[in-house]
Design a protein that fits this description.
heterodimer; A: 346 residues; alpha+beta; two-stranded antiparallel sheet; 11 helices; 34% helix; B: seven-stranded mixed β-sheet; 28% helix
Chain lengths: 346, 840
């Protein structure tokens, strides 16, 4: 028996393809079926080669079909300069009642507003930075654990010193820059007072309480004669204004390389007035943030004389405030972009 | 760091370290620790668990009549437990199955009604009662160490090994009536001395205004007994002095290794450690006391009389004490016997040289290791030991000999060992440190410096006392203070460290809470933030939802959006593949969130985000990536809604709503083909536009529908469109357009309006027609406005019809229809002449 002529069948099928209305029917063409049927009749030594050729033809037809359907997905050009489409009404905005601002951003606005009223300007943080601003400028000694890669995301790409860039683990990366840029204020007898919101990143596994991406608002205040009592008073004042009630604070000694002395601050639970509830785990207190007097080495590196000027800094997480306020059970909702979540904050 | 109050009390009372430990009660002490030392994680009332356990003497012990393994005992509890059946001697009958029970033994008895300590924290604790065992009544039970939650031992009952009286409280006997205060370790990151309970005791004295006095053996030059037995030679060769600045060791002969006495076992348990044997237990105890880890080797198993310190070889194997095998690296500090590794320095000993019950001769090591090297080795091998917890804080290298002398002394007393050679002290510390006897040089400061930074008015003598309470040496000349930190303090380097010391010892809760004072200069507004707030306002009022999405994306999101991975910053150490790259632009993250929301039942919505993109191609002068902050929005409608018209115009409607409110006039220009910018890659060039500010030519961004490939890859409905605007550019335009574009005065006279429908070839764009007409209107005496109201194209036609409403107002008089007609005809004339428009 003579073997069928594959190139001839191919030519015929390709020709027919162009004229078909239902392009997908090409795969059901009887010629193709006959070719497949003929495989088993080929002499054993030729069977493999023949089968491969038949299959190649089928793959080619399938690809052609895919190309055509991709083409079919393409839409015709439109007049992008027009305010609405042809033969269509002018589009309406979406229903205003569905619109929402992200709860974190709304909360940040109110936080920044309080600090603005207290005399702090806002300087936003960066999302990618270098080792210098992340560690060196903040008095992290070489070899400090925070510098190794267990906690901090680093990039494959290096900076001009050959060091990897880092995803900031705290908004303190801006301290050096602000002290440097606003150092002139001190000479005019004015304080440096800035609050620094931004995204920060920690190389952590996710769960309901841990995110690798979250928001902090840092604050710094530098002037002559600034002391630790000023720091505690500033935050007590902020918290009382934020919660609209008199908040008590409790400081616990802590250690950060970039502040000395350092504290962790707890506030009396604003949800039960310190009586004990599920939010404060029945302790009446909520541990909230780290703070301290800016380390003289940090001031010095930014050109501020620590003998003359002193200052304080804090770094506070934003998500926690919002989660406590609304009883949000899972921190991962914030960056989920789920409308089920977001539209509850209209 | 677990602290046992009974242990501290014992030292305070017996050795007069300081005054009363908790003069105002435990709660007040805990409160004070939180405020002035560090956060307290937990306070465990250990005594509660042992409240019912009574010391008893086995008065008689006979075999059970019906059970081979059981004994019937009469026990003497001194008659302290009431309401029990007693025999004529006043003894109580208890059945016991332990093989070691015998007459005259002192035991721990759990009477009926007592809770078995082992089950104390269980959901349903086991409470004993009087019940018959094979027909003989047993009043409670005699307890094994396991049942007492003291160890895993359950082969027999616990035998009391010290003088005791029947009826005595078992808890009191072994000081189990204890409170364990667990202070968070992270508080002591820079305080290695507080990883020993002596260090904590010193701080407790300090914060309560008491003077602490360290024991003699700790603060004086130690003397080691001369070897009066046959010497055990020891040679130490340190090849890594930069990582092991000090290595001290001594040999001891004829040690009797056995179980530690019960008081030692319970002391370790209370401090969170597990008893093993007396030698190991004493070394652990001294570590818990001083913070200095120690290690004991079996001298004969070491076999060479040598200890070597060197870096490991990659791939070198070592069997560890925990039963696992470590594969060492060239970054690990290794202890050797001169030939092969026998321990991971400062982390964990090796199994081959372990001290066990057959050990006779030992080497005790008391060394210092580089804290960062210890931490890296610990993380690398997943080894987290008590030694690591201490060494990775950087123990003072000035206490080794005192601690070594102390452990030698303990082992002589309690394990019968004899010193068998001179102490080896391989010391690579700088000469200055050795000479001054403190880790850092003295700090010079003054009273005013301290007071200014704390807002206090302490006197020089108050400051001096606070410091001297915790054993600083303070020299005062007028108000200048020269302060020498004690040798165990590694954290006192600069005057600010003294400020923190004073603040803490005095009490931060006593600082004056006063706000900083400043003049009334207003704080500067951040105009970019104000813009963002306004954007959020306008878009949310337009029905859009603000979202936040991660700055990091999976590489395949870049692929699906048609963007290039090559330009994206790559994260090299992410735990999850979802965080491989910094995103190039915000939009792909938004597109990625469309499908899920449609599946969740939302048929039409707009998501927007204000966020940053980064590209390796755009760096600033410092070599850091420029952060492009954009406003990105995606509008999508489920295709089953069959919305009329292209989605593009929906997105455009939202964009112009925003720019109108920001008072920026924009125009849209066709893309005209594929662009190079990564931000443009998801957009379909045939159905997208660049957004420009009218008249200024400033480009604000891009708007359009998505490429079919992008739609398919991200499962987007056909009816999807998006835009992306550069926020800094928008801000620039707002600042520029602050004047001139806004209010229009009202006319006292009524205006008029006419609709005109132009037929133009389909190739004439809307903008072209508008641009043709607008100058005619601008040139009129009257104020004329143009508004498109309809665009129509018949099927298969090559023309389209655009209807405008032209509204005219005259500020000086009422418009007549003639005047209006003149305007309209001028408009028509120009459109006809320039574009061949036909009025229909």
């Amino acid at each position: 028996m003579q073997s069928p002529d594959i190139p001839a069948v191919r030519d015929a099928l390709l020709k027919r393809f162009d004229s078909l209305d239902d392009k997908s029917s090409i795969l059901k063409a009887p010629e193709l079926r006959e070719l497949f049927g003929a495989i088993k009749n080929q002499p054993a030594e030729k069977r493999g080669e023949f089968g491969a050729a038949v299959n190649a033809l089928k793959v080619e037809l399938e690809q052609k079909l895919a190309d055509v359907s991709e083409k079919a997905q393409e839409l015709p050009p439109i007049d992008v300069t027009a305010p609405f489409d042809m033969n269509a009404p002018k589009p309406q905005l979406l229903p205003a009642q569905n619109g929402t601002v992200h709860p974190l951003m709304r909360e940040l606005d109110s936080v920044l507003d309080i600090f603005y009223r207290m005399g702090f300007t806002t300087v936003e943080s960066r999302e990618i930075d270098d080792e210098f601003h992340m560690f060196t400028a903040l008095n992290f000694p070489a070899g400090h654990p925070a510098r190794d890669e267990y906690d901090t995301f680093v990039t494959k790409q290096a900076d001009k010193n050959g060091e990897p860039l880092v995803a900031p683990a705290h908004t303190s990366i801006m301290q050096h820059r602000i002290l440097k840029e606003q150092g002139g204020l001190l000479e005019q007898g004015k304080p440096i007072a800035a609050v620094i919101p931004g995204r920060v990143f920690r190389n952590e596994d996710l769960d309901a309480r841990h995110e690798h991406t979250f928001y902090q608002f840092e604050g710094i205040y530098v002037d002559k004669g600034i002391h630790a009592g000023n720091l505690l008073a500033t935050f007590k004042t902020f918290l009382s204004e934020y919660y609209g009630q008199d908040i008590q604070i409790k400081s616990q000694p802590f250690y950060f390389p970039f502040t000395e002395p350092s504290f962790e601050l707890a506030l009396s639970c604003p949800f039960c007035q310190g009586k004990g509830c599920h939010i404060c785990s029945n302790t009446g207190w909520i541990e909230l943030l780290g703070m301290g007097m800016i380390h003289p080495n940090v001031l010095k590196q930014a050109g501020v004389d620590p003998e003359i000027y002193t200052g304080f800094a804090w770094g506070c997480g934003l998500e926690r405030l919002v989660m406590m306020k609304y009883g949000i059970e899972d921190i991962r909702h914030f960056e989920s972009a789920k409308l089920d979540f977001l539209r509850q904050f209209a | 760091m677990k602290v046992s109050l009974n242990t501290l009390r014992f030292y305070q009372d017996t050795y007069k370290w300081a005054g009363d430990l908790a003069p105002d009660g435990i709660d007040a002490l805990v409160e004070k620790i939180g405020a002035q030392l560090g956060a307290v994680e937990e306070v465990e009332d250990m005594g509660a668990k042992y409240r019912d356990v009574i010391v008893a003497r086995v008065a008689s012990c006979e075999n059970h009549p019906d059970a081979d393994r059981l004994h019937v005992c009469k026990i003497d509890d001194g008659g302290v437990v009431e309401h029990l059946e007693r025999d004529e001697n006043g003894f109580v009958q208890v059945v016991c199955g332990a093989p070691n029970v015998r007459e005259d033994m002192f035991v721990a008895w759990l009477p009926p009604g007592a809770t078995v300590p082992e089950t104390y924290h269980h959901e349903a604790p086991f409470v004993l009662e009087a019940r018959a065992l094979r027909g003989v009544v047993s009043n409670g039970m005699l307890a094994s160490p396991k049942e007492l939650a003291l160890s895993d031992e359950h082969d027999g009952i616990l035998e009391i090994d010290t003088d005791a009286k029947p009826g005595e409280s078992f808890a009191k006997l072994y000081q189990l009536d204890d409170h364990i205060i667990d202070i968070e370790n992270k508080m002591f990151t820079h305080r290695p001395d507080c990883f020993g309970f002596m260090g904590v005791a010193r701080e407790l004295a300090g914060i309560q205004g008491q003077k602490f006095t360290s024991p003699e053996w700790y603060v004086t030059q130690p003397e080691f007994p001369k070897a009066n037995v046959e010497e055990l030679a020891l040679e130490v060769k340190n090849e890594a002095p930069e990582l092991v600045p000090r290595f001290t060791a001594v040999t001891m002969r004829n040690v009797k290794v056995e179980k530690s006495p019960m008081w030692m076992q319970t002391a370790l348990l209370r401090l969170g450690s597990r008893p093993i044997n007396n030698v190991v237990d004493y070394t652990n105890y001294i570590m818990l006391l001083t913070g200095q880890p120690l290690h004991a080797y079996d001298y004969d198993k070491v076999g060479t009389g040598k200890l070597g310190v060197r870096l490991g070889h990659d791939g070198e194997k070592l069997n560890l004490l925990n039963g696992k095998e470590a594969t060492l690296t060239k970054d690990d500090v290794v202890i050797t016997n001169g030939e092969k590794a026998i321990g991971v320095g400062g982390v964990m000993g090796g199994a081959d040289t372990e001290v066990d019950e057959n050990t006779k001769n030992i080497i005790i090591e008391c060394a210092n290791f580089d804290m960062y090297a210890i931490r890296r080795t610990s993380m690398r091998h997943g080894l987290f030991t008590d030694a690591v917890t201490r060494f990775n804080k950087g123990q003072s290298p000035l206490q080794n000999l005192a601690v070594l002398a102390k452990i030698v002394d303990e082992i002589r007393q309690f394990a019968g060992g004899k010193v068998a050679g001179a102490v080896v002290d391989d010391n690579h510390l700088p000469d200055e440190m050795r000479e001054r006897g403190s880790v850092h040089a003295s700090v010079v400061t003054n009273t005013e410096f301290v007071n200014t930074r704390l807002g206090l008015q302490l006197s020089t003598s108050e400051i001096k006392t606070l410091l001297e309470n915790v054993e600083f040496v303070v020299n005062v000349v007028n108000e200048d203070l020269t302060i020498k930190a004690p040798f165990w303090r590694t954290d006192i380097e600069i005057p600010e460290d003294i400020v923190e010391e004073i603040g803490r010892l005095y009490g931060y809760d006593r600082l004056p809470l006063v706000l900083p004072k400043r003049d009334t200069t207003p704080a500067k507004r951040n105009v970019l933030l104000d813009l963002k707030s306004q954007v959020r306002d306008v878009l949310s009022r337009s029905g859009a939802n603000e979202v936040l999405t991660y700055s990091f994306v999976h590489g395949n999101l870049l692929d699906r959006a048609g963007q290039s991975r090559d330009m994206a910053f790559q994260i090299s150490n992410a735990l999850s593949p979802d965080l491989q790259y910094y995103r190039l632009t915000v939009l792909p993250s938004l597109l990625d969130k469309v499908h899920g929301n449609i599946r969740a039942g939302y048929d039409e919505f707009a998501l927007f985000e204000i966020g940053k993109g980064h590209s390796t191609e755009h760096l600033n002068d410092d070599g850091l990536p420029i952060e492009f902050e954009t406003l990105d929005l995606v509008y999508a409608a489920n295709d089953k809604l069959a919305k009329p018209g292209a989605a593009y115009y929906q997105a455009q409607g939202l964009l112009t709503e925003l720019t109108d409110k920001l008072k920026i006039r924009v125009e849209f220009k066709p893309l005209g083909g594929e662009l190079v910018g990564q931000g443009s890659k998801p957009f379909d060039p045939k159905r997208s536009a660049l957004v420009y500010v009218k008249d200024t030519g400033i480009a604000l961004g891009i708007i359009g529908e998505l490429k079919p490939s992008v739609r398919k890859a991200l499962k987007l409905p056909v009816h999807t469109a998006a835009f992306s605007l550069g926020l800094v550019d928008v801000l620039r335009c707002i600042q520029k357009s602050a004047d001139g574009y806004g209010y229009e005065p009202l006319s006292r006279y009524p205006g008029t309006a006419q609709d005109v429908c132009f037929r133009v070839p389909d190739t004439v764009s809307f903008a072209a027609l508008e641009a043709c007409i607008q100058p005619v209107l601008d040139a009129q005496q009257v104020t004329a406005r143009l508004q498109a109201i309809d665009i129509y194209k018949a099927e298969k036609s090559t023309d389209k019809q655009i209807t405008f409403r032209i509204s005219m107002t005259n500020y000086d008089k009422t418009m007549t229809s003639d005047e209006a007609d003149q305007v309209i005809s001028a408009v028509i004339k120009k459109a006809q002449a320039e574009l061949g428009a036909v009025v229909v």
